C-alpha cells in the first residue's frame, strides 16, 4: 500500500499517518502476527504500536515526509542504507509509478535474467501455497502419490534444521529466526529434489526473498478456500490454537487472507477447494497441475 497524499479523513487524522497505520496493519496481517508479537519483535510497547496503527504516530514522521518531498524521493528511501550506486537509483526510478502489470513483467524478466530454474526442474517441483486449512497437506500427499514424487512438508524440514518444533522456534527465537530457517529449508529442498510436491507454510509469502526463490524454483499452486472453511478445517483437525484466547480470530483470519492474497495470486495457477469434497478438489488440482506444467515448459523454450 502506497502512502499517498489525500484529503484529511473525516475523523480529523492526518491522511499520511492514517495510511501509514493501515500499511503496518496489512504487513502485520500478512505475516500472521498479533500486535503483541510484533511489538515484542520490534522492541516497542504494544501501546505505542496500537497508536501507530490507529493513525496517531510520532509527528516527526511528518517532517520526514517533507524532507522526502524536497528530495523528490519516496519516504521509504530515507530509511535505506546509503550507497547502492547509480544503477540502483536508476532502476528504482524506472520502476516508480509503474502499474502492477508492468511490475509483474519486470519481476519475471529479472528472474529470467538472474537465473530462473531450468524448465524441467521447475515444472516437476510443485509447491502448494495458501492459508492453513486450504488442503495443502492432504491434497499434496495425494498429488505426490499420483505423480510418484516425494512429498515434502516444509514445516517439518524447518523443524529438522532447527532441532525443535515450529512453536518453540517462535517462542525461543522469534518470527525473524523462523523466517531464516524457512529460507534454509526451502534451499535445502530445492537442492535435494528435482521432483517433489511441497506443502509450504501459509506465511511463506511474508518474506520477499524466500517467496521469490519459491516462484523461481517451483511451479506454484494457490489452494483457495473461504475464511470460514479455513477456520472450520483447522478446528476439525483438532487444532484449537486459532481460537485460544482470541475472540476476534475470524476477523484476524480475514485480515491475514486479505493481506496475503495479492501475493498468493502470483502463483502459476489457483485452484479453489471451496465447497468441494476432497476428491473433487484433488481432481481440480491434478488437472490444473498438468496444464500449468506444460505452460511452464513452453514459456522456457
Could you walk me through the main structural features you see in this protein, from its secondary elements to its overall organization?
The protein has 301 residues and is of the alpha/beta class. Helix content is 59%, strand content 7%. A five-stranded parallel β-sheet has the order 2-3-1-4-5, with helices on both faces. Residues 1-9 have low confidence and may be disordered.
Topology (SSEs and partners):
Elements (H helix, E strand, L loop, with lengths): L14 H16 L4 H8 L3 H8 L6 H12 L13 H11 L4 H14 L5 H4 L2 E5 L6 H12 L3 E3 H9 L3 H8 L1 H18 L3 E4 L8 H10 L1 E6 L2 H10 L12 H16 L4 E4 L5 H23 L1
* CA distance, first residue to last residue: 35 Å
The CATH homology group name of the domain at 119-300: P-loop containing nucleotide triphosphate hydrolases
Low-confidence stretches: 1-9
Q: Determine the strand fraction and express it as a percent band.
A: 5-15%
Shape annotation: globular
Mean pLDDT: 81
Helix and strand succession?
A: HHHHHHHEHEHHHEHEHHEH
Q: Determine the structural class based on helices, strands and strand pairing.
A: alpha/beta
Q: State the helix count.
A: 15
Number of strands: 5
CATH fold group of the domain at 119-300? Rossmann fold
Task: Give the strand order of the largest sheet, numbering strands 1, 2, ... along the chain.
Answer: 2-3-1-4-5
**Main beta-sheet strand count, sense and barrel state:** 5 strands, parallel
Helix content: 55-70%
| The CATH top-level class label of the domain at 119-300 | Alpha Beta
Second CATH tier, the architecture of the domain at 119-300: 3-Layer(aba) Sandwich
Radius of gyration from CA coordinates: 21 Å
Amino acid at each position: 500500500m502506497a502512502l499517498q497524499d489525500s484529503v484529511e479523513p473525516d475523523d480529523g487524522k492526518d491522511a499520511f499517518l492514517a495510511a501509514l497505520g493501515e500499511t503496518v496493519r496489512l504487513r502485520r496481517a500478512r505475516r500472521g502476527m498479533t500486535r503483541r508479537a510484533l511489538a515484542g519483535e520490534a522492541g516497542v510497547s504494544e501501546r505505542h504500536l496500537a497508536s501507530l496503527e490507529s493513525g496517531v504516530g510520532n509527528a516527526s514522521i511528518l517532517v520526514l515526509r517533507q524532507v522526502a518531498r524536497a528530495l523528490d524521493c519516496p519516504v521509504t528511501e530515507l530509511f535505506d542504507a546509503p550507497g547502492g550506486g547509480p544503477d540502483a537509483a536508476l532502476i528504482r526510478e524506472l520502476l516508480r509509478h509503474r502499474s502492477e502489470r508492468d511490475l509483474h513483467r519486470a519481476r519475471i524478466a529479472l528472474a529470467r535474467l538472474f537465473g530462473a530454474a531450468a524448465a524441467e526442474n521447475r515444472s516437476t517441483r510443485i509447491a502448494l501455497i495458501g492459508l492453513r486449512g486450504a488442503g495443502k497437506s492432504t491434497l499434496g500427499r495425494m498429488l505426490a502419490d499420483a505423480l510418484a514424487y516425494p512429498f515434502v512438508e516444509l514445516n517439518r524440514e524447518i523443524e529438522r534444521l532447527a532441532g525443535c518444533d515450529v512453536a518453540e522456534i517462535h517462542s525461543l527465537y522469534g518470527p525473524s529466526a523462523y523466517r531464516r530457517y524457512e529460507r534454509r529449508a526451502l534451499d535445502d529442498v530445492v537442492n535435494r529434489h528435482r521432483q517433489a510436491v511441497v506443502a509450504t507454510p501459509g506465511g511463506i509469502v511474508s518474506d520477499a526473498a524466500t517467496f521469490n526463490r519459491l516462484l523461481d524454483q517451483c511451479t506454484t499452486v494457490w489452494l483457495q478456500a473461504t475464511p470460514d472453511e479455513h477456520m472450520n478445517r483447522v478446528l476439525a483437525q483438532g487444532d484449537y490454537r486459532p481460537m485460544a484466547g482470541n475472540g476476534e480470530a475470524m476477523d484476524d483470519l480475514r485480515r491475514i487472507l486479505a493481506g496475503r492474497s495479492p501475493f498468493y495470486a502470483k502463483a502459476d495457477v489457483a485452484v479453489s477447494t471451496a465447497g468441494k469434497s476432497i476428491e473433487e478438489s484433488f481432481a481440480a488440482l491434478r488437472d490444473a497441475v498438468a496444464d500449468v506444467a506444460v505452460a511452464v515448459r513452453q514459456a522456457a523454450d
